[in-house]
Design brief:
Keywords: Signal. Residues 16-49 form the F-box domain. Helices cover 7% and strands 41% of the residues. It is mostly beta strands. The strands form 7 sheets. A 5-stranded mixed β-sheet has the order 24-23-25-26-27, with no helix packed on it. Strands 3-2-1-28 form a 4-stranded antiparallel β-sheet, with no helix packed on it. The chain has a 4-stranded antiparallel β-sheet with strand order 4-5-6-7, with no helix packed on it. 31% of the residues are buried.
């Protein structure tokens, strides 16, 4: 100020508490842009109490061998259905074209490249965590070893042979039935589990190999969900086998839950999720015409039906979680993609659980794009654990 004896600050700075208040009121995208303003703003962002992000859609690029190289873009497309805005994540590497996504956890994705190598990819930081080669796989059965070769359609040719005589006993083509991913974004602890045929395979941080385990029933896995060191595996007979991953090097099978009495032959019980309160949920459907939602009491091993309602929550089939129905997220709805719930529906969709009506469609995402995309997936964006 003119006439004042106080020195003028050339670079005025906001008080840290005020910066935090500003950041906490920004949208997800604006928040991460604001973190780059200065070191002070970046430091303040670590103390913010961020509200729950709404579900986004990610579209992975399709393998387009018939197109010239100059027209191929190694990027992914993101869409925020609340703000109706699209974003592009570029420079993901040319291998992204023939890389398939099998699971996600917040902003982390489990990827399998064309050379049969798994890695974890953070879509916002582009950080990669490379997982061990499948050649390192260890089996509980000392008499066999498995070798994998990826086919063009993301299935495997699995060769089984014996250690002692090195004689091949079988060579079969399998696809990955289902997979789950869990990541602690602060310390980068992680767990990956995937299933093919009657076999479950897992790897967690600190191990140098993939490890094989099976349920005592030796049945194929239909779906699975992971919460608080517990893996719940839905198998062919519609029962659930529970494994504890906190008991040492190998998971321990500690419980088996029968399916609800209502799940008779004409009903398919094939999807699991974890609710906001930590309950394990399951969907039973009658050939896609109607469905019921059940919650499991892990103490009594019993199921109880939820009368066509999740209350003030929505179910993300891709991430096997429920999210709060607020800030534009539709109440009592099921978010799914790629025909996961209705086999005759390959689009990206939101369906009302009670009425079975489609309340949102996103066909325009691929129709308006000059490049082909595949593997649409719902996810909840996060950054640095927030």
């Amino acid at each position: 100020m003119s006439g004042s004896n106080k020195p003028i600050r050339k670079n005025p700075m906001l008080i840290l508490d005020l910066v935090i208040l500003v950041l906490e009121r920004l949208s997800f995208v604006d928040f991460h842009r604001a973190r780059c303003v200065s070191s002070v703003w970046y430091s303040a962002s670590k103390s913010c109490r961020m509200r729950q992000s709404n579900p986004w859609i990610i579209l992975f690029p399709a393998d387009v061998l018939h197109l010239p190289l100059e027209s191929i873009d190694d990027s992914c497309k993101l869409f925020d259905p609340i703000d109706h805005k699209s974003y592009t994540v570029r420079d993901l590497g040319s291998d992204i074209l023939r890389t398939s996504c099998f699971a996600s956890y917040n902003s982390w994705f489990l990827m399998l490249d064309r050379k049969t190598r798994f890695y974890l990819l953070n879509m916002f930081t582009r950080e990669r965590i490379h997982l061990p080669s499948l050649e390192s796989m260890q089996s509980n059965d000392d008499g066999t070893k498995l070798k994998f070769k990826r086919n063009f359609d993301s299935s495997f040719t699995v060769t089984t042979f014996h250690y002692k005589d090195n004689v091949t006993s079988s060579k079969t083509c399998y696809g990955i039935r289902t997979a789950v991913l869990w990541v602690d974004e602060r310390n980068k602890d992680y767990l990956v589990v995937w299933a093919f045929h009657h076999t479950l395979v897992y790897h967690k941080k600190g191990q140098d190999s993939w490890r094989v385990f099976r349920s005592s029933t030796n049945q194929s896995c239909v779906d699975m969900v992971f919460i608080e060191s517990k893996l719940y595996v839905l198998i062919e007979d519609r029962s659930i086998t529970a494994f504890d991953f906190s008991c040492g090097d190998y998971p321990k099978e500690y419980a088996r839950f029968t399916s609800p009495d209502e799940c008779y032959d004409t009903i398919r019980f094939r999807h699991l999720a974890v609710s906001l309160s930590g309950q394990v949920l399951g969907i039973s459907s009658v050939w896609g015409d109607s469905f019921n939602i059940y919650k499991m009491d892990v103490k009594s091993s019993e199921w109880s039906i939820i009368e066509y309602s999740l209350g003030d929550e929505a179910w993300l089939l891709d991430q096997r979680i429920t999210v709060p129905a607020k800030d534009g997220v539709l109440k009592n709805c099921l978010y799914y993609s790629n025909g996961q719930f209705r086999e005759d529906d390959n689009g990206i969709c939101v369906i009302n659980i009670q009425t079975m009506n489609k309340v949102q469609l996103f066909n325009h995402l691929t129709a308006s794009s000059p490049l082909p995309f595949k593997d649409a997936r719902w996810f909840v964006p996060t950054f640095c654990g927030k």
